[in-house]
Amino acid sequence: MPTIGPRAEIEKGMAGVRTDLYQTMLKNLVEQSRFLDETG
Predict the structure, then answer these.
(1) What mean pLDDT value characterizes the chain?
(2) Tens-digit pLDDT profile for residues 17-32
(3) Helix H segments across the chain?
(4) Whose CA is closest to 14, among 22, 26, 24?
(5) Are 14 and 35 in contact, with CB atoms under 8 Å apart?
(6) φ and ψ at 15, to 5 degrees?
(7) Three-state SS for 18?
(8) Where do the domains of the chain lie?
(9) For residues 27 and 40, what is the distance between their CA atoms, to the nearest angstrom?
(10) Which residues contact 19 (CB under 8 A, 6 or more apart)?
(11) What is the pLDDT of residue 28?
């Protein structure tokens, strides 16, 4: 499952504080969704 980053990054701050981590999580969700859609 996607997270907001590796453990070390998660410990640095929450998604609301670290918007870069939140954006990374969203990007990962999109990539996974596209892969699942393409592979059925």
Answers:
(1) 79
(2) 778 877 888 888 899 9
(3) 7-12, 19-39
(4) 22
(5) no
(6) -55, -35
(7) coil
(8) 7-39
(9) 20
(10) none
(11) 87
